[in-house]
Write a structure and sequence with these properties.
Layout: E1 7-9, H1 22-27, E2 31-39, E3 42-51, H2 60-158, H3 163-202, E4 207-210, H4 211-226, E5 232-237, E6 242-245, H5 247-265, E7 273-281, E8 284-291, H6 321-325
């Protein structure tokens, strides 16, 4: 077949150049046909036929039929090889696309985690800013009371304590202690709110909680970052609305909705009103969020929940805020 020509032996074991061939000697074939299978001038296979009982089996008429069938077989073999190559290419391409998709998902998860940690960083900054006021006021009142108490002690030890000074000291001590107590209670409430929101933002644990008070705590954590803009927040609905769910998810939802409104709904010097209304419908809760900003372009509405879709990329937007909400 090296010369790509047909070979016909009418009595292979008794005549011809192959009577000493080990295969011929062992199997004693009488009629033998070797035919190259060609398609468009290229050999794609070899057809080998033999008959061990009769000689002169492969007549000219039979060979023509075999050649016709062989040409079809060559085409089928070529198509099968092409299909196999295409199938291998599809498998390879599918593997590449799967790897690319996994990489994109990993990148998206990393960006979402970065967004969450950035929000937590803003929360920590807000804690420091918000608690600084009551703590600073408490320190001032404590310092004033400390100085006045030292003067009171000196007056007592020297025997020069007067009734008017005693009355003045008592009034100042009562007022200072009230200021200290009020501000430390306020700081404690802030710490409690910030602690709960921060914990809920970093882990998702299911528990039963009152939704409206919890969302109000989330708003407290957001106010230090946005109150200088003059924005106002309000939550309406049933105060006793209980839900068994993941509070961290509600924190992320409300935070991202408000941030999205501020970044996209108002110009830098504008202030807005953000509203959340809670109602119970059968065994579900309906949470309606709204702002009084300039709205969303109808062209963008079909895409707002898609990952990485943003109209503010030049301002550092990642397009993950509303996708996290979704």
């Amino acid at each position: 077949m090296q010369v790509q020509q047909e070979l016909i032996l009418n009595d292979a074991c008794h005549r011809g150049d192959f009577i000493q061939d080990p295969y011929i000697v062992k199997h004693q074939p009488r009629s033998l046909l070797g035919l190259p299978l060609k398609h468009q001038g290229t050999m794609v296979g070899i057809l080998y036929l033999e008959n061990r009982a009769n000689k002169d089996v492969f007549t000219n008429q039979r060979i023509k039929i075999i050649e016709l069938l062989s040409s079809q077989a060559a085409i089928s073999l070529e198509n099968a090889q092409l299909y196999q190559k295409m199938e291998q290419q599809v498998i390879k391409r599918t593997a590449q696309l799967t790897k690319t998709l996994e990489d994109l998902r990993a990148t998206q998860n990393q960006l979402i985690e970065s967004e969450k940690m950035a929000a937590l960083g803003n929360l920590v900054a807000g804690v420091a800013h918000e608690i600084n006021t009551p703590v600073g006021t408490s320190i001032t009142a404590s310092s004033f009371l400390h100085d006045l108490t030292q003067k009171f002690a000196q007056a007592c030890s020297s025997g020069q304590l007067k009734k008017s000074f005693l009355q003045s000291y008592t009034d100042a001590a009562i007022e200072s202690s009230q200021i200290i107590l009020h501000n430390l209670q306020r700081a404690g409430e802030l710490v409690s709110s910030f602690k709960q929101v921060a914990v809920d933002q970093t882990r998702l644990e299911c528990r039963t909680f009152e939704l409206k008070p919890y969302l109000e705590e989330v708003l407290i954590s957001l106010q230090p970052e946005f109150k200088h803009r003059g924005h106002q927040f309000q939550i309406t609905g049933d105060d006793q609305l209980l839900i068994t769910s993941y509070p961290g998810a509600f924190s992320q939802i409300l935070t991202n909705l408000i941030i999205n409104s501020i970044h996209h709904g108002y110009w830098p010097q504008e202030s807005g009103l953000f509203s959340v209304h809670l109602t119970q419908k059968d065994d579900q809760i309906l949470m309606i969020y709204s702002d009084d900003g300039r709205g969303i372009s109808p062209d963008h509405l079909p895409n707002i929940f898609e990952p990485f879709f943003t109209t503010a990329r030049h301002q550092g937007g990642t397009g993950l805020g509303l996708h996290i909400v979704y």
